[in-house]
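Entry type: protein chain
Record version: 2
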Amino acid sequence: MSDVKPAPQQPADESNSDAVPRQRRSRVLKKGKLVFQHGLRSIPCTVRNLSEGGALLEFEQAYMLPKEFDLSIDLEDYEVTCERRWEEGLRCGVQFISEKRPVTAQRAQVLKTSEDALRNEIDERCDSPDNFFQRKHFNDKEDAPRQPVRRARPAGGGKPTFGKRR
């Protein structure tokens, strides 16, 4: 049995009929960053789901999270101020408390076909720093460059060396 607990849900209050219905969250897997203390501190995170009003964040290790912070998501062109609503283990739910502020994207998402990806991978294999694949390799002895000839040392006549028999 798994001991994983679902995210805490607030009980529906029947007396509050004017409650705003929860917005549908889309599942995503994006790299994000919590920024706080006027940009002096940041914590990396993974955004697991996202809606117009909030997000689910997941962390690699436990952190002491501030109550309010700015959330910046890679591949998105905005950042938003968030309030931590709940926290359980390495996950936390946040609610957006400000309008989304446009920022320049840190990097662009590039999608390419599998054929292009394989072609690039093959090209990378053929390119090497020392141009190994562009050099001429010799298979026949006729084409091979001449190797220096080793000459045998003259026997005896020199100084005795360690381990040499006389």
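Comment: Residues 12 and 19 are 9 Å apart (CA to CA).
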